[in-house]
Amino acid sequence: MFGIGELTILLLVIVAVLAVKRLPDLVRSAGKAARILKSEKQALKEESGGPSQPSPRVIRGETTERDTPA
């Protein structure tokens, strides 16, 4: 009978042989998904009005002199 090691190697070979047939479709699907993700990200960026950087806060107050020891 086969041991665990031999069965694992046999299973890996079978998966590799079956995966070779579907590899181009898998890569094509991954490329489509990446393009869709990129276009959606660009659309969100344009919708929000560019990069989301907060505008600087201006706090109005009065200017005072430093206390200096005499």
TrEMBL record:
Keyword annotations of the record: Membrane, Protein transport, Translocation, Transmembrane, Transmembrane helix, Transport
Subcellular localization, as worded in the UniProt entry: Membrane
Biological process (GO), any one: protein transport
InterPro entries: TatA/B/E
Disordered: annotated span: 41-70
GO CC, any one term: membrane
Biased composition (Basic and acidic residues): 59-70
Membrane topology field: Single-pass membrane protein
Protein's name in the database: Sec-independent protein translocase TatA
Lineage: Bacteria, Bacillati, Actinomycetota, Actinomycetes, Kitasatosporales
